[in-house]
Amino acid sequence: MPAELVCRLEEHSVEAWPATVTSRTADGWVLRATPGLDRGRSNHALTPCRALRPSEIPGAIASVETFASRHGIPAGIQVSPVSLHGQLMGELDRRGWGRRWPVLVLAAGRDDATWSQPPELTGMASLRRTDHATAEWLTAWARCEPGRDVEAHVRTVFGELAGRATFARLDDAAVGIAVDHDDLVGLFCLAVDPARRRAGLGTALVRALLADAAASTAYLQVEEDNAPAVALYERLGFSKAYRYCHRVAPS
Known about the structure:
Layout: H1 3-16, E1 21-24, E2 30-33, E3 45-46, H2 57-71, E4 76-79, H3 86-94, E5 98-109, H4 113-116, E6 127-130, H5 135-144, H6 150-155, H7 157-161, E7 166-170, E8 174-181, E9 184-192, H8 201-212, E10 217-223, H9 227-235, E11 239-248
Parallel strand pairs: 3-4, 9-10
Antiparallel strand pairs: 1-2, 4-11, 5-10, 5-11, 6-7, 7-8, 8-9
């Protein structure tokens, strides 16, 4: 995938999954904090979309640690894309930072087959769309992803997304979020009730979200070891764009 598009996807996702506190540095880092929400992008600094000079790495790590301490969160870095940051990864290894949640970013263009096929909803489930996380959507999400910190998301990310995202659900069996702006649409929180998987609900939901999108390029993020989800999205026309992972400071 062209480097320019990778950088656009990275920038889009910062806005599409907002943190409570965001601070940008002059050298391209995005420092993020969402106290009360534990995992990943919401609390981890995002690397610049360029290769780092070896001389700037120690200072950058120190800035991340200072920011995290100021906001009462564990220090973490989302290294993205991994292919640009071999030297940073090596330095974090040397310092004993852990590796967490390796993620694939998949992308599809409007000319891919998935956007030309209408969602197949007849006899399956009724589709509901809102511009905020309703009580019904939250109940369905909790069913589809047991154990998620629903109330923490309501207090933080979902409140920031109200009015500028589409929260979609197929009855109480499948949910997802689409954030469509700047000719890109990001799909988040895609999930299907474990008791109703392999029935076409995930496919129908993704197609429904894409059918509503004005953007020409869609993307989503999926954990690398989630082989069934990766296979589903690839069948829908998505292909691997790049990888990222999270690094967390030693306790």
